[in-house]
């Protein structure tokens, strides 16, 4: 990966992904062996700025942990209410100021395209940690890492279920999977199907894609079931929400029809999309997936910071 | 003498845009940032009968020669336009309308939560697709009614 920034999954070639995942596996092994002590401090003077305009404790903490495991430090913009954002400063100005403090910048922002714009204003590496309903490419890397460990990335049949319209993790994952030999099944209520831009990319890449409103149609074929949350606020009334939310809830009855080696994933946090009874089964890979955030983000930061040196 | 020439007299110097889609002339002027305040003559004929298009618009802009870049932007709403540059009553140059790879600062993104609609100091950029345009920031695709998204002062 030669880019200075990671703003969208479409930037990543298959070779980029494989390189990053291999590196992540090395970090993962080192962490498993001796925690941070097993790692040389690669970036002792490096400061990473965490700019989260939307709350996301986990993503933020995993970037923070990753930077610290690499021997670096973080500065945190803090919550948006307390910052100059509420005083009306533009994002373009804010990132240019922060560029003066830090060697890299992780941005979570409620508007689509925010990270892409930020990357045009600064020279330090920018990582998109979620832009509105747009993209979340570092999540995608850890999703791919988890998929590779559990099922492999070749000859893969994956079902992606839930809010496909606003789900940025879905958009990034679908885009990234076009680089691999994956059959993608998208399952959602009609009102939450994939947005036009993602469909366009999938079509352009010649990906094998099918769309469904009923999970039962495809569940038995799947190697991986990637579940996302359907947000209540996306629906005009509670009844409509209850109708669809119940339909995509995964419990042990649902999985009766699934293969024994089905891998169930979820970017977390979940509400009730996956029943707790699944947690102790071999299907459950979502906590592992969350755990993978640190080594994968270590690999990503390592790559971007060393590109930038 | 053809129909539209009867309606609009010849100009001495400037640009004649012909074969614009019927009803698009005002959008074309908006796209070019021409609103009459320039003080030079602008003639518009709308829905002139035309064998090729059914009804076409014609615009004559005096004392201004459109650049190739301006002409290319036209292609988004008038792909079959013909552009004649006139000097001393004669057509001295015919420009071809070609679809540009991208356009900057011409269209507003219809996605209300796009970063370009947040008061940031950034110019919109749209990549031109075979059958539409795509926001260079949020990746939203516009296929129909591109003229409705013109963002020109
Ligand atoms: Zn946009």
Automatic annotation (TrEMBL), chain A:
UniProt entry keywords in alphabetical sequence: Pyrimidine biosynthesis, Transferase
EC number: 2.1.3.2
UniProt-annotated binding residues for L-aspartate: 87, 168, 229
Protein name per its UniProtKB record: Aspartate carbamoyltransferase
UniProt cross-references to InterPro entries, sorted A to Z: Asp/Orn_carbamoyltranf_P-bd, Asp/Orn_carbamoylTrfase, Asp/Orn_carbamoylTrfase_sf, Asp_carbamoyltransf, Asp_carbamoyltransf_Asp/Orn-bd
One GO BP annotation of this record: 'de novo' UMP biosynthetic process
Domain Aspartate/ornithine carbamoyltransferase Asp/Orn-binding: 155-302
Regions crossing the membrane: none
Pathway: Pyrimidine metabolism; UMP biosynthesis via de novo pathway; (S)-dihydroorotate from bicarbonate: step 2/3
Organism listed in the record: Halolamina litorea
Function field: Catalyzes the condensation of carbamoyl phosphate and aspartate to form carbamoyl aspartate and inorganic phosphate, the committed step in the de novo pyrimidine nucleotide biosynthesis pathway.
Keyword flag Transcription: no
Residues annotated for carbamoyl phosphate binding in this entry: 58-59, 108, 136, 139, 268-269
Gene Ontology molecular function: aspartate carbamoyltransferase activity
UniProtKB/TrEMBL annotation, chain B:
InterPro entries in alphabetical order: Asp_carbamoyltransf_reg_N, Asp_carbamoylTrfase_reg, Asp_carbamoyltrfase_reg_C, Asp_carbatrfase_reg_C_sf, Asp_carbatrfase_reg_N_sf
The entry's keywords: Metal-binding, Pyrimidine biosynthesis, Transferase, Zinc
GO MF entry, a single one: metal ion binding
GO biological process, one term: pyrimidine nucleotide biosynthetic process
Pfam families for this protein: PyrI, PyrI_C
Cofactor, free-text remark: Binds 1 zinc ion per subunit.
Domain (Aspartate carbamoyltransferase regulatory subunit C-terminal): residue spans on this chain: 103-144
Reported cofactor(s): Zn(2+)
The organism's place on the tree of life at top rank: Archaea
Record: residues binding Zn(2+): 109, 114, 135, 138
Domain Aspartate carbamoyltransferase regulatory subunit N-terminal: 6-98
SUPFAM superfamilies registered for this protein in UniProt: Aspartate carbamoyltransferase, Regulatory-chain, C-terminal domain (SSF57825), Aspartate carbamoyltransferase, Regulatory-chain, N-terminal domain (SSF54893)
Assembly and binders: Contains catalytic and regulatory chains.
NCBIfam families according to UniProt: ATCase_reg
Function: Involved in allosteric regulation of aspartate carbamoyltransferase.
Family under the similarity heading: Belongs to the PyrI family.
HAMAP family: Asp_carb_tr_reg
Protein name: Aspartate carbamoyltransferase regulatory chain
Species per Swiss-Prot/TrEMBL record: Halolamina litorea
């Amino acid at each position: 990966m030669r880019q200075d920034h990671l703003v969208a999954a479409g930037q990543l070639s298959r070779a980029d992904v494989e390189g990053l995942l291999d590196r992540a596996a090395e970090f993962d092994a080192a962490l498993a062996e001796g925690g941070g002590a097993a790692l040389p401090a690669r970036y002792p003077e490096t400061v990473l700025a965490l700019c989260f305009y939307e709350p996301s404790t986990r993503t933020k903490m995993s970037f923070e942990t990753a930077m610290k495991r690499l021997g670096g430090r973080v500065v945190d913009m803090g919550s948006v209410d307390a910052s100059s954002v509420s005083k009306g400063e533009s994002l373009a100005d804010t990132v240019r100021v922060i560029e003066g403090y830090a060697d890299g910048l992780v941005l979570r922002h409620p508007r689509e395209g925010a990270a892409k714009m930020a990357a045009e204003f600064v020279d330090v590496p920018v990582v998109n940690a979620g832009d509105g309903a747009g993209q979340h490419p570092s999540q995608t890397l850890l999703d791919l890492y988890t998929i590779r460990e559990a099922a492999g990335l070749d000859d893969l049949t994956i079902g992606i279920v839930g809010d496909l319209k606003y789900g940025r993790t879905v958009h990034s994952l679908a885009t990234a999977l076009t680089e691999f030999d994956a059959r993608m099944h998208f399952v959602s209520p009609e009102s939450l199907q994939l947005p036009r831009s993602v469909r366009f990319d999938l079509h352009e890449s010649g990906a094998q894609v099918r769309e469904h409103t009923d999970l039962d149609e495809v569940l038995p074929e799947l190697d991986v079931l990637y579940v996302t949350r359907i947000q209540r606020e996306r629906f005009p009334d509670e009844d409509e929400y209850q109708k669809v939310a119940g339909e995509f809830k995964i419990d042990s009855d649902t999985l009766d029809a699934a293969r024994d080696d089905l891998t169930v994933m979820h970017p977390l946090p979940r509400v009730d999309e996956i029943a707790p009874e699944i947690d102790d089964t071999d299907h459950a890979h979502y906590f592992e997936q969350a755990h993978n955030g640190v080594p994968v983000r270590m690999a990503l930061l390592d790559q971007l910071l060393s590109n930038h040196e | 003498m053809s129909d539209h020439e009867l309606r609009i007299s010849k100009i001495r110097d400037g640009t004649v845009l012909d074969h614009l889609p019927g009803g698009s002339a005002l959008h074309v002027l908006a796209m070019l940032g021409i609103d009459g305040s320039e003080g030079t003559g602008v003639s518009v004929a709308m829905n002139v009968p035309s064998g090729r298009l059914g009804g076409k618009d014609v615009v004559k802009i005096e004392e201004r020669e459109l650049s190739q870049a301006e002409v290319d932007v036209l292609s988004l709403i008038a792909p079959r336009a013909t552009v004649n540059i006139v000097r001393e009553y004669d057509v001295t140059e015919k420009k071809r309308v070609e679809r540009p790879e991208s356009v900057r600062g011409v269209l507003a993104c219809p996605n209300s939560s796009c970063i370009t609609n947040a008061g940031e100091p950034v110019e919109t950029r749209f990549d031109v697709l075979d059958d539409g345009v795509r926001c260079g920031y949020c990746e939203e695709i516009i296929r129909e009614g591109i003229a409705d998204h013109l963002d020109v002062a």
